[in-house]
């Protein structure tokens, strides 16, 4: 994982340039954003450190879906988390809406990194 322009993603390619007449060799990182799947690129002097983001993945039971696209999730301590929107991925969105409409008990996985959160997966834990 590397941060590039305040984004987080797994590194898929690293290349280095030779030391030039004006200083250090450079490292070219290519990563894929964990939230948007867009390609990220960053060039850093080889003598510098790179930030590594802390990524969490938490499961919550889905309680409700509001008309404006927000979800209500049950936390481990019994409170609700109501600040997340439905995912933009069409396949996952359809699975969540259809499963909820069918009355299934659903658990969503929420990935969080660098102050951003997004539903990234779904588990069906059976009928209500």
Automatic annotation (TrEMBL):
SMART domains the UniProt entry points to: eIF-5a
One GO term (biological process): positive regulation of translational elongation
Molecular function per GO: ribosome binding; RNA binding; translation elongation factor activity
PTM characteristics: eIF-5A seems to be the only eukaryotic protein to have a hypusine residue which is a post-translational modification of a lysine by the addition of a butylamino group.
Keywords tagged on the record: Hypusine, Protein biosynthesis
InterPro entries in the record: IF5A-like, IF5A-like_N, IF5A_C, NA-bd_OB-fold, Rib_uL2_dom2, Trans_elong_IF5A_hypusine_site, Translation_prot_SH3-like_sf
Top-level taxon of the source organism: Eukaryota
Coiled coil: none
Boundaries of every Translation initiation factor 5A C-terminal domain copy: 54-123
Family recorded in the similarity comment: Belongs to the eIF-5A family.
UniProt cross-references to PANTHER family, sorted A to Z: TRANSLATION INITIATION FACTOR 5A FAMILY MEMBER
Function recorded in the entry: Translation factor that promotes translation elongation and termination, particularly upon ribosome stalling at specific amino acid sequence contexts. Binds between the exit (E) and peptidyl (P) site of the ribosome and promotes rescue of stalled ribosome: specifically required for efficient translation of polyproline-containing peptides as well as other motifs that stall the ribosome. Acts as ribosome quality control (RQC) cofactor by joining the RQC complex to facilitate peptidyl transfer during CAT tailing step.
Protein name per the record: Eukaryotic translation initiation factor 5A
């Amino acid at each position: 994982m590397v941060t590039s322009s305040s984004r987080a993603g797994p590194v898929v390619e690293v290349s280095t340039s030779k030391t030039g007449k004006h200083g250090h060799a450079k490292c070219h990182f290519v990563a894929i954003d964990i939230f948007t799947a867009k390609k990220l690129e960053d060039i850093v002097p080889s003598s510098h450190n790179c930030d590594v983001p802390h990524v969490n993945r938490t499961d919550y039971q889905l309680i409700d879906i509001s008309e404006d696209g927000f979800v209500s999730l049950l936390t481990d301590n019994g409170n609700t988390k109501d600040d997340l929107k439905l995912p933009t991925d069409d396949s996952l969105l359809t699975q969540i809406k259809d499963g909820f409409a069918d009355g299934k008990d659903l658990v969503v996985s929420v990935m969080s990194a660098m102050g951003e959160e997004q539903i990234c997966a779904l588990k069906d834990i059976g009928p209500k």
